[in-house]
Amino acid sequence: MPVQEIADRLEIEQLLIRYCHAVDGRDWDAYRAVFTSDAVIDDVTAGPGNSVEEMAAFLAGAFERVVVIQHAISTSRVKIDGDTATARTICHCPVVLRRGDGETRLFFQGLWYDDELVRTSDGWKIAHRAETGYFHDMPPDFSFERGLEEGEQS
């Protein structure tokens, strides 16, 4: 493998890791930094065609009921073609939700990140991200869009 490809693969791996740490740490500036300014994000819970700013705002609101979240990525398949690349990465993500009345609930979600990446003057960035193959065991009365259903205490 050529040295440049090794360097690119390591940089892309670190980019994907920085994304996870930014989301889990609710560091929305670090979150913005992993994407191109015109990136498009197709998120399972927020819907398709979101900008980085729209997603940062959505996640900040959605996480109001999240006690802790831990993105764990693995088995990335990366294909590099000059200054562009694609990556398909598994993500398993346990989430602890506030249920109200001091109660919490752990649930798990899993998905694939399908990314289109570009080399920029600031290094590799995500230009398009789609979440696919989503599964979870989230409580049926909870959604990130609505929070707790009417009738439950916050």
Structure description:
With 154 residues, the chain is of the alpha+beta class. Helix content is 25%, strand content 52%. The chain has three helices and nine strands, in the order ααββαβββββββ. Residues 146-154 have low confidence and may be disordered. InterPro entries: NTF2-like_dom_sf, SnoaL-like. It holds the Pfam family SnoaL_4. Residues 4-129 form the SnoaL-like domain.
Keywords:
single chain; 9 strands; two-stranded antiparallel ribbon; 154 residues; seven-stranded mixed beta sheet; Nuclear Transport Factor 2, Chain: A; alpha+beta; elongated
Helix content: 25-40%
Quaternary state of this entry equals: single chain
Any idea what the shape is?
A: elongated
Helix-strand pattern, N to C? HHEEHEEEEEEE
Question: What percentage of the residues does DSSP assign to strands (E)?
Answer: over 45%
Largest sheet: 7 strands, mixed
Count the DSSP helices.
Answer: 3
- Total number of strands: 9
CATH fold group: Nuclear Transport Factor 2, Chain: A
Quickly name the level 1 CATH class.
Alpha Beta
Low-confidence stretches: 146-154
Arithmetic mean of pLDDT: 91
Architecture in CATH? Answer: Roll
Cα(first) to Cα(last) distance is: 54 Å
Cα-atom Rg, whole angstroms? 17 Å
Structural class, from helix and strand content? alpha+beta
Total discrete domains: 1
Protein name: Nuclear transport factor 2 family protein
Pfam families: SnoaL_4 (PF13577)
InterPro entries: NTF2-like_dom_sf, SnoaL-like
